[in-house]
Amino acid sequence: AIIRGLTAEVEEGMTYTGTIKKIMPFGLFVEVLPGKEGLCHISEYDRKRIEDLAEFVKEGEQITVKVLEINDRGQVRLSRKALL
Questions:
Q1: Residues 6+ apart with CB under 8 A from 67
Q2: Gap between the Cα atoms of 48 and 60, Å rounded
């Protein structure tokens, strides 16, 4: 299972439970697969407006997110709101 995780690719439309790696004013960086991170923008965290994500989550916590898009530069856009 570990080897599969290292070679697995993140897929658009899929749901992953990942680890919050960094909390920024604009969103969360979440590792969805080993070595594969994406950004959950603050506007994609909840249906209601959030001022400070640090009030709701901490680095190292698990979070379930959906992959909205992978752009041509390989950047992964995530959403928690899409699963609510």
A1: 10, 11, 12, 13, 14, 15, 16, 32, 38, 76, 77, 78
A2: 23
Residue 40: C-alpha distances to residues 1, 4, 6, 71 (Å): 26, 24, 22, 14
Residue pair 67/77 in contact (Cβ under 8 Å)? The answer is: yes
* Domain total of the chain: 1
Domain that holds residue 75: 2-83
In sequence order, what are the beta bridge partners of 30?
20, 38
Q: CA 46, CA 6: separation in Å to the nearest integer? A: 30
- The pLDDT value given to residue 38: 98
pLDDT at 21 (0 to 100): 98
Query: What residues in the chain have per-residue pLDDT under 70?
Result: 1-7
